[in-house]
Write a structure and sequence with these properties.
- α3 packs parallel to α4 and α8 crosses α9.
- The chain is an alpha/beta fold and about 300 residues long.
- α1 links the parallel β1 and β2.
- The two termini are about 30 Å apart.
- Strands 3-2-1-4-5-6-9 form a seven-stranded parallel beta sheet, with helices on both faces. The chain has a two-stranded parallel sheet with strand order 7-8.
- It is globular and about 55 Å long.
- The structure holds NADP nicotinamide-adenine-dinucleotide phosphate (NAP).
- The site of NADP nicotinamide-adenine-dinucleotide phosphate has 33 residues, from α1 and α6.
Length: about 300
């Protein structure tokens, strides 16, 4: 059965840019009632104003469990129910594993993983208590990554958070089977958003000199795939179908995938070393210090 997007209540974290923002625009155009969350409140309010001011903005840092709980409470207080929660907030770090501290990993996990589990933990009791609509009591969409199924060089800590998100979502999907709550994971490949600019700035590495941060797919493509999965819940969404097949290779031939990734890393590092360091002044990066000219060059992968 197809769910009607019109009047559906959808809570979206990480709604201030990229995939989250594109999703807000698409769902708003289809008549959904949205609760949009992120830390940059001015951004949220500007997006809401562009869409006619009909949605609810909630300043939320998902790395703080009490803020996740508050977000869900405010959504239920405002609209009486939550049809879909989209756990999309997240960021990346570009750093070889041997240079990644435990604190780096904990910080990433707090936002990417615990932000997902805390929002879900607060939303599930509300969904269980509500009447089904379009055949479902509710749905949780977890924006993971294609890299959830394969760790990537220089993104090891980040890809670990994406694998962990997938793992908890798979567990929840079986635990909640038969309750009327659907769990969907989303697996984008490199997408043109602020993600890499923020990660580059936060990591203090040089930006790639040619291709890389432009992205292999648009945030609109990912958002369109998410909207389809909200209408008709399914376990996994792979907006770039070819990469889903590539992931099968990681299960059957990990040595081959190691070689491909190592060669790609070697070529990117050489290219970055050959190029002059370009001044890099991102306007919208989340946080972080100025880029260091001496830092290791990033080897941006298509699977982030
Ligand atoms: N871009 C890619 O290539 C790619 C590929 C695969 C998966 N993904 C995943 O897609 C999701 C969205 O990323 P994007 O590509 O759209 O990147 P983006 O443009 O950088 O957006 C990230 C969003 O997350 C929010 N965010 C970050 N930390 C937060 C926190 N502690 N609390 C609340 N919100 C937080 C940011 O808002 P504020 O800064 O305003 O809080 C922003 O709205 C992420 O989970 C990412 O891992 C991205």
């Amino acid at each position: 059965m197809r769910r009607r997007i019109e009047d559906m209540v959808v809570v979206i974290t990480g709604a201030s840019s990229g995939i989250g923002r594109s999703l807000v625009e698409r769902l708003s155009a289809r008549g959904a009632k949205l609760v949009i969350a992120a830390r940059r409140m001015k951004r949220l309010e500007a997006i809401n104003a562009e869409l006619g001011g009909k949605h609810v903005c909630v300043r939320t840092d998902v790395s703080e469990p009490e803020e996740c709980g508050r977000l869900i409470r405010e959504a239920v207080e405002k609209f009486g129910r939550i049809d879909t929660l989209v756990c999309n907030a997240g960021y990346g770090l570009i750093r070889p594993m041997t240079e990644t501290s435990g604190e780096d990993i904990l910080r990433l996990m707090r936002t990417n993983l615990i932000g997902t589990t805390e929002c879900s933990r607060a939303a599930v009791p509300e969904m269980l208590a509500q009447q089904p609509r379009g055949g479902w009591k509710g749905q949780i969409v977890v924006v993971s990554s294609a890299a959830a199924r394969r760790g990537l060089p220089d993104f090891g800590a980040y890809t670990a958070t994406k694998a962990a998100q997938l793992s908890v979502a798979e567990a929840m999907r079986v635990e909640l089977r038969g309750t009327g709550i659907a769990i969907t994971t989303v697996h984008p490949v490199t997408t043109a958003t602020e993600f890499f600019r923020a990660a580059i700035r936060l990591s203090g590495v040089r930006p790639p000199q040619r291709r890389g941060i432009e992205g292999f797919q648009s945030s609109e493509t990912v958002a369109a795939a998410i909207v389809r999965s909200i209408e008709q819940p399914r376990p996994e969404v792979w907006p770039h179908h070819r990469y889903r097949l590539l992931m099968a290779l990681t299960a059957f031939a990990p040595r081959v995938v190691d070689l491909i990734l190592a060669e790609r890393r070697r070529r990117r590092s050489r290219r970055a070393n050959d190029s002059p360091v370009a001044p890099y002044l991102p306007q919208d990066a989340m946080t972080g210090e100025a880029c260091s000219a001496n830092a290791v060059p990033p080897t941006v992968s298509p699977l982030s």
